Amino acid sequence: MKLLCVGAKEHSDLLLGICRLAAVGGRRVLLIDGTSSRRLSCLVTPGSEPELVQYDEIDVACHFTSLDAALEHTAASGSVLEEYDIVMVDTDRADFPGAAGAYPFEGLFLTTAYDKYTMRRTAELICSLNDVCQVNTLTSTVIIRDAVECGIDEAYVDKVLAPLPFITPDEYHKLPFDEVDLAVRIDSEYQGKVGIRRMSRAYRNVLLAVTNEITGEDRAVLKRMIKQAMRRKTG
């Protein structure tokens, strides 16, 4: 599975969590940071040079200026690209994927939120990336992050996304804001690992559901995998 990952709302921890579960389940995973902020790269390596890093059994390509450069470096490092079960490319730059249609993405992973800035930025990203990645042809998985009870709801999200070159999913995964999850994410970043054990039940349930959509793995198997990930020592 080759996924284009778009996060107008920060989602590095979610990508790492999905990859971690897949890795525990025996999948080979490559996660590529193609964002302007390099947030993901900052989490997994202290350096600033382009490199391929192994982080909690996940191969992470950091600080590359283009998708081609990341894939070429990965191949030169001895990793056979065809042997990866999952490749996730996180980007907010239309110039990162390269020439239109050069990399055959098979799905879209999108993280957004109810606030006005994030919704507007989500629309901009979908439109800019569609020209090179054919977003309008990709099956999508969408997470609404930091969901709270307010005057804005899924109907508003539908209204914003409907006119875009984008295949909306049958349902959105809503991830409620939780101070405990935020604390665990911060602790995990400084400990250099993917924190799942102390995350809220809601967070783990969303992680399980999304990984099920992406990998196609049976939910019962995924439940065992998430328990293994919580027990396994990492770092």
Number of strands: 8
Helical stretch tally: 8
Strand percentage, roughly? 15-25%
Shape: globular
Topology as a string of helices (H) and strands (E): EHEHEEHEEHEHEHHH
Q: State the distance separating the first and last CA atoms.
A: 26 Å
Structural class: alpha/beta
Nearest-angstrom radius of gyration? 17 Å
Major sheet attributes = 8 strands, mixed
- The mean pLDDT is 90
Strand ordering within the main sheet = 3-4-2-5-1-6-7-8
Proportion in helices:
40-55%
* Uncertain spans: none
Written overview of the protein:
The protein is an alpha/beta fold and 235 residues long. It is 41% helix and 20% strand. The chain contains eight helices and eight strands, in the order βαβαββαββαβαβααα. It has helices spanning 12-24, 39-44, 67-76, 116-133, 154-161, 179-191, 201-215, 219-231; strands spanning 2-7, 29-34, 51-55, 58-62, 86-91, 107-112, 139-147, 173-176. Helix 7 (201-215) packs across helix 8.
